[in-house]
Structures are given as structure tokens and as C-alpha cells.
Amino acid sequence: MWGVPMTRQTSAVVLLLFTSILLASCSGAPGGGCVSNCGGGNATLSFVLTATPPAPTLGLSVQTFTATVTGISLTPSTGAAVNVPLNTTAYIAELNRVTSDSTLLAAAVSVPAGTYTQMTVTFSAPRVTFCTQANPGVPGCAAGTLASISGTAGTATISTNLSVSDSLETGVALNVNLANALTLSGQTISAVNLGATNVFTASALPPSSAKTDLASGELAHVDDVMGLVTSVSGSTLTVQTSTRGSITATANSSTQFSGDCTTLGFAQNFTCVKANTVAIVDTLLNIDGTFTLVFYQPLPTQLSSGDLIEGVVTGVPNSVTNQFTVVVTDSVFAGSASLLQGRVNLGDQIQITLSSPDPFTIIAKGLTFPTGSAFEHSTSVASILPGQTVAFPVLTFAAQSGATPGTATSHDLALRFTRFSAVMGTPALPVFSATTFPPFFGLATGQQFQTTSGRLSVDGASSLTSIPAGSTFSTTALYIGLPVAPQFAAQSVRAH
After folding, report:
1. Is the pTM of the predicted complex or chain greater than 0.70?
2. How far, in Å, CA of 75 to CA of 160, rounded?
3. If you average pLDDT over every residue of the chain, what do you get?
4. Which of 48, 81, 138, 373 is 20 to 30 A from 263 (CA-CA)?
5. pLDDT band at 39, cuts 50/70/90?
6. Which conformational region is residue 70 in: left (phi greater than 0), alpha (psi within -120 to 50 degrees), or beta?
């Protein structure tokens, strides 16, 4: 196992200044009102991206839902629109990801104090990769059904009542309702339109105490950020992602470091952080737009030295050819001479051939889970399940061309977090249950989820146990697989 259980303690950040921020969605609900210094000065806003999934009962098998966010602007009640500088000029969002994990759109943006009546979002290249599986309990996409469908570029305008005062520090969550953007025929998606009615809404950060486990001074969890460590200075690091820009986070006395640091020959402290290596970080977005490093996970040496693809497995692997297919959910580019940069896109289908594989590893990030799964320490593709998300270093690569999947070879494979939605069964700790999984998982019965004390992020509810049975939730979880139980270990749970 690559990863040992640890305890996470979320630190409280001193709230320097507090006032209220009220946003209404397209319904035009009243609220807001400038509280002080409304005639001038600047406020500081940070923006994150979230999404609401289609109901699990629709029986969809969506592997990725991507779009490029090309701009965000705020329109004041008087005067010119204010552009929001995004975290990267080419911000490629994976909307299936943000059903359970928020991602940063922009941090510490200075905007003039005043009242803003509209938010405008421009986007391009919406694309959904999905499949169908009509037979309950049969794992994998039905033959010939894995496909992508694309939409057109466009603009969405959100009616708001956003009033910000001089020196205010706060945040905004931009939410995408995925079901409202899709045209469905049974399990088949026939069209995607991010410009449809009621796709985009906005809400204030931080949420109310009944809707989050965040402490005072914290705006959002921004967890499971994988990328290349490009800078290390003092107790601060910068991680560069391939599609969403970089995040700079600072460790404190509550920051935790994976036990895998010792496996690599380092101490479990900030000395484990090394530039030009691949790592995964959990962070907290603070009210002033800075980030606190919550957890640091280095990757094994064999996964940390070059190009890396992460993808969700779509079908039962072929044990004869040692091949299986993934849909790309994330990637890391080598610092130089990258095989992937400019050639792989989120949502691409890639056929992987494992050549003389090393024993498979599990990137646990301090989560507790039962040992003895078929995946752990295996060298056989027969141990890989549809619905599992895996990461692998790329030895050779050919890009997808049209509907023809790309190809890659690798020696190494690691289990990563799968993001999906289901229906809550029994909301208990440390083990909860759920039903109604994406059909291509092949799970027709209820399943249990292991949680780890101090290593669970909750959104949409104050605690996991307050999520109603029978309601929809999204999760970021390790899909460990048989023969162990529970088969899942959850890090993030968001109630919808």
C-alpha cells in the first residue's frame, strides 16, 4: 500500500474582517445591500467552481464533462463590467470532478466596492464522454457505446444581487447544473448545451454553518490537487496543474505529511516537499484568497519523474493482450520534452498496454481502508475494475484521432480517487452506505464506504451524518474493489 492512515486537523484562520455578501440566482431573490464605504475602495473576492450532478436514478455513466472557461465578468449597477482574471488563461474545467471537489477559478481578485447585478460566464468546447450499460450488475460500458458529444461555445448570464464594501474579503461559488445542460434519451446523451436555462448559478462563500464543516475564516475545501511541484520556499509550495493553473499553499503546525515521505527517505514534515516532483495536495482556500496546506502526498518515484495520465477505467480489461481503456480525467506534464503536452485532452479515450508491470500501488493519502484487495500488489490487469480511477507514467503515447482512441504503454499503475454520485443509504460514521451507482460500475446492490477520522471533507451539510437517507450525494473515493469490504474509502462527500 502506498499510504498510511493519518489524522487531519483543520486549522482555523483568523477572520480579519467580516461583513455579509448575498447572491441571488436567476430567480431574482432579494438580498444584499452595501454596508459601509460604498462610495469607493476595493473588495477582495475569490471564486471556486462546483457542480450539481444529474440524479443517480437517471442511470447515466458519465466519465467526464469538460469545458474551457474563457472568461468571467461582473456587471455593476452603474459603470463598466469588471473582468475576473482566471487562475490560468486556458482554464479547462472537468465538471464531473467538481460535483464532489471544488476547484479554484480565481483567488484574491480586487474589485471596486459597489453592487453587481450580473455575472457573465463565457465558455467554449463543452464535451461529455459517456457510455451506456442497460444490464444491472454487468461491469463496464456496453460494447460500442463509449463516445463523446460536443457542444458549442457560448455565454451565460447570471442575475445577481452582489454588494461588496471596501476592504471586504469573501468568495463566490460558481455552480453548474449538469442535468440542465444535457439532452437525454434513456442512458444516451444526445446533446450538451451549457448556455441552456438555469445551468449556471452563483452563491456566497463561505456557506452557512449548516452547509459545511469549514471553520471560521475558511471559504472552501480545494482538495486532491495533483501536479508538478514548481517552487518550494520556506513553508510554501506551488503545484502546477495541467489544466487549471497553479496553487500556492503554505504549511502550518496542523499540516500533515503522508507516511510515504518516510518510504522515500524523508521526514514527515516540509522537508518531504521537493521541487520538480509530482505531488497531490489538499488545501483550504482562506477568506483572504491564500491557501493553507492541509495534507501533502508525494507520489512514488516511478510515477513522479515525467508524464502522467490519470483516467477512469471503462471496461473489463483484456488479460490476453494486457490492455484496458481509460477516459482521461487528469494529467501531469513532464517539465521538459513532454510526450503529452498539447496532445492529450480531458475526456480522451486511451488504450493502455501494461508491459512487464511492477506491483500495483494505492495512493491512499492517509485514508484507512481494508487491505487484501485484488488490486493491491497485483501485476495483472484482471485485478482492475470498471469505475476505478488509475494513474500511470507514460512510456510511449499516441494521441486520440477523431473517434479512434489514443494508445499508451506503461510499467506502473496506481489507484487514484474516483468521483461519482449515488444515493445515500445509512449516513453513519465511520462507515456509511449508498446505492444507485453509475451503471458501468456493475454494482447493482448497496455498498459501504469507509471514512477516516480527520480525513473527511464535507460540503452541503455540517456533517456526513446530517445528510438525509435517500438523497443524492457526490464523493471522491478510492474504489478498492473485491474481495474486501467496504469496497470504497471516501475522502470528500458533498450533499446535493
Report:
1. yes
2. 9
3. 91
4. 373
5. low
6. alpha
Neighbours of 190 (CB within 10 A): 10
> Is cis: bond before 430, omega within 30 of 0?
yes
Q: What is the CATH number of domain 306-416?
A: 2.40.50.140
Which tens digits make up the pLDDT trace of 347-403?
A: 999 999 999 999 999 999 999 999 899 999 999 999 999 999 999 999 999 999 999
Q: Return the domain boundaries, the chain.
A: 306-416, 418-495
| CA–CA dist 46, 168 (Å, integer) | 11
In whole angstroms, what is the distance from residue 192 CA to residue 190 CA?
7
In the CATH hierarchy, which top-level class contains the domain 418-495? mainly beta
247 neighbors 239 (Cβ within 8 angstroms): yes
Do domains 306-416 and 418-495 share one topology? The answer is yes
What CA–CA distances, in Å, run from 248 to 49, 295, 314, 327?
18, 13, 34, 28
Q: Enter the C-alpha cell of residue 136.
A: 444491472
Rounded distance between C-alpha atoms, residue 415 and residue 361, angstroms: 6
25: pLDDT strictly greater than 80: no
Please tell me the distance from the alpha carbon of residue 285 to that of residue 300, in angstroms, as a whole number. 27
